[in-house]
């Protein structure tokens, strides 16, 4: 009779230890920092919206000129104003470039307020097949440091 009580107590202690370890594992796993969302998922809808906005797309394709840079500042300002209305998160900052599709499109200089990675995505835009002068719009997005 005493042997059966000893086995039951060992079994009860084992179950109690398993319950305590299970609670500890659940608490530790729930306290892990949530992973930050991929900012490239934020850029794609912005590029889609720029491509679908005929006014903005035509300004980029027709007014932006690689040889005569006088009107280029206006196009970049218009594009920046558009993106400021869409990127409302105050912890995010962005930059935009318009380039020749045959060339590599990059930032003029690396931003100083970066916390983490700089995400970039580009889209080539063209107005019609008759006037095929495509431009590549590239958006750079990062978290402020």
Number of helices: 4
Q: Which range does the strand content fall in?
A: 15-25%
Mean pLDDT: 85
Helix content: 40-55%
What keywords describe this structure?
single chain; 3 strands; 2 domains; 4 helices; Ribosomal protein S3 C-terminal domain; alpha+beta
What is shown here, in short?
This protein is 46% helix and 21% strand. The protein is an alpha+beta fold.
Q: What topology does this entry show?
A:
Blueprint: H1 2-30, H2 40-52, H3 54-63, H4 72-86, E1 92-99, E2 114-125, E3 135-144
Antiparallel strand pairs: 1-3, 2-3
Description:
The structure is a single chain. With 145 residues, the protein is of the alpha+beta class. It has helices spanning 2-30, 40-52, 54-63, 72-86; strands spanning 92-99, 114-125, 135-144. It has four helices and three strands, in the order H-H-H-H-E-E-E. The chain starts with a helix and ends with a strand.
